[in-house]
Design a protein that fits this description.
370 residues; alpha/beta; Rossmann fold; Dihydrodipicolinate Reductase, domain 2; 2 domains; nine-stranded mixed beta sheet; six-stranded parallel beta sheet; 17 strands; globular
Length: 370
Amino acid sequence: MAPRPLKSGIIGTGFMGGVHTRAVRSAGGEVVAYAGRDVEHTRSAAAAANVPLALTPTELVRHPDVDIVHICTPNSQHVELAFAAIAAGKHVVCEKPLATTGDDALRLEKAAEAADVVHAVPFVYRFYPTVREARARIAASGERIWLAHGHYLQDWLSDQSAYNWRVEDGESRAFADIGVHWCDLFEFVTGHRIVRLLAHQSRLHDTRTSNGRDVPVSTEDGTTMMFQTDRGANGTVAISQASPGRKNRLWLSVDGADHSYTFDQENPSELWVGSTNEVVLLPKGYETLTADVASSYVTVPSGHPQGYQDCFSLFMRDVHRTIEGKAVDALPTFADGARAARLTDAVIASAQSGGWIDVAAERDSESSAS
């Protein structure tokens, strides 16, 4: 007999809740419950998505039919909900940032490992075939990566009238929300670790309009950062959520001794590969990519684009495979979420001090474990 489908409960019924719902179903799972802050809104969202149960977060975490708890709530709620899910013995998929401090993220990582539950953070840009191809080529060549540069730019908070709960949720917004995606992608593709950084945070608007009132803003609209890695590379990156016309411009370029590689998330079907002799725009396809990459991450024939939702579906496929005891390559886990939180801590500290900051390494801490 075939195993029964894995059943998910999703806390948070906004945009990300819908993305998770589609990904779960694409992976062959079932979404059996929604939970949210507003009972009527949760019921309406569940009915629209054909989800049978509309529950409170506490009810969802404890429900016997739920195998995987998905946390798609404001950042400040992640820690409490993730701990509750772990304590209930559920597998957990938690949106990033996993926590708003490195210590809290480390506590979650340790708790999930101790409970022996599968845990994942959706660093889904790893699942573009062209990203996997860049990673495979760099690893196979063994060439020295000495320079990295890029940006992650959005415009949805460009207007002073644009407001979102993220504006007041935590000490960092732009870097904690999207900058960590760029850093995860850089470290994933190259195998380097950012060990030291100098960061500056800036705001386009010191107040934003919400419900007819001006709300002071404490989080940043943009971050610029220089960094050094454990393998001797240097890099720069610009992060912004207030760059007009830039919808989701995640652009990563790494320079090696023999080749440079560039990935553009808004044009993900091509990988730019340069050398002193030629420039190649390598298209996504079964015929063009490394065999292991093509067989595992190309889901539609050449000429057919794969996008963000497809990445999420591949991510969820690997979550399910991990729960089923199957081997997967580089599923982003709570360890990666904790890594991102430590980078965010370092960015905040550097911006406050005006100096270079060492990024805390993976570590044990009695204060964090308590």
